[in-house]
What we know:
alpha+beta
Amino acid sequence: MPIIRVGSAVTQINVFTVEPDDQQPLIDHLARAARVASEVPGWMSASLHRSLDGTRVVNYAQSEDLDAAQRVIQHLKARGLIEGNKAFGQAHPGLYEVTFALARHDI
């Protein structure tokens, strides 16, 4: 499960713009890629989110640190999984760090 705390991890957030018919196939592709990424030491989690209008998919993936995140990216590139994303839509990736988090504790 994702851990969202200041200083807890490096997060790759990738927002994909897709045609509605490509939304589920992209989710399936990204789920396969997440299973492959989980083989890399330092990988922590992946979460996929679909927009309700069918036009976007968000991939939220965490690694222990920047080196681990870069190893994950190289691992996926070497297996053609990042290139494979292009078949489904346009990607807008970035690496991030958590700077603020607030949550209810009663849920």
